[in-house]
Structure formats: C-alpha cells, structure tokens
Known about the structure:
The chain contains nine helices and no strands. By secondary structure, the protein is mostly helical. It has one domain. Helix 5 packs antiparallel against helix 6. The mean pLDDT is 93.
Amino acid sequence: MIRKHFLLIMAIIYWIFMMVGFSDNWLTQVDQESNSDLKFIIHGFIAFLWFSLLIAQNALVKSNHVNIHKKLGLLGLPLFYLLIGSVGYLVYYELKANGSLNALPTMVSVQAVVATIVITIGFTKRRDNPKLHKLMMTFGAFCLTQAAINRSIYWLFGNDYVFILSLIIMLLMLASFIWYSRRFHWFYGAWIISFVAGIVLVL
C-alpha cells in the first residue's frame, strides 16, 4: 500500500515541510520585513507552485489523468528552472551583502545543483521510462527540501536540534527512496556527495 502511493506521499511530506518551515511568512509573523521584499515574495510563490504541482502531478498519474499530467509537465519544467533561478539569486544576494554564505545557503546551493541535474535528466525519461521519470522528478524535489526541513525543526523544537534532527530526517527519507526503488540509483549517491560536501564546506 505504501509502496503503491510512495511518490505521492513523499510529495505531500515535502509540501507539509514547506508550509510548516515557512509558516512565519504566511501565518505567525506576517509583518516581518522579508514579506515586503520582492525577491523573497517571488521565491516563495514559485516554491509554493512547484511543490503544489508535484503533488498534483503524482495525483494525476494515480487517477489515470495522464494527458493532463503531460500537459502540466510542460509547464512544470520551466517553473522548476524559475525556482532554481530564484534560489541562485537569493544565494548571490547574500554573498554580495555579507561577503560569505552561512551554513544553510551553502548546503542548499550544492544540493540545488544535484536537483537540477536529476530533474533535467528525469524529464527526458518521461517517454522511454515513465517509472524512472516519476522517481527522478520526486527525488530531485527532495534535494531542495533542506531549508524547509531545517526551518520546520527550528520552529517546532528549537535551534539546538536543527542539525541532528534534519540529518536524521533526510537520511530516513533517502533510505525510504532506496527501499521504494529496491536499488541504489546513481542520483542517490550524487545527493549523498552533495550533502557531505555541503557539510564540509561549512565546517
């Protein structure tokens, strides 16, 4: 049962992390300065659309609305590149403003590179290997979740638990992908390398 709906479940989990992690922007601290900053507004809006679309795409496949899924997919890839572009701009802005990056933007940047590669290749697999296509699109989205996971833990449990709990959650999510696919795909290894590299860069 879980395996049958695994990708949809993962997409919903991502969305929940996004909503909880950035709940200060839309619920608890709506008067904060970043909510009037256009670059953050654009990034947040694009991220919300992308992760919502990921749920819709998985749900459409499950309900056999494949034609609608294919049409939305043509919009989804440009939307993903807009998301990556907005991430890149935010990283550039922080680097320019502060002269360096703190831990989270550094790790997010490295993983975003892997996300871009995985989702771009995954999109090309949509005709000849639909199962791999769905897996790569969903795993590629996983590569973009660390910021939301970290922030969710911060709001729920405090700053002291962010690193260890985010590490546990992300490794458990990786393990669940390996369990689902019954093999260790190259992109799992690519994410591990990017995650470790991000940690090394901030030490």
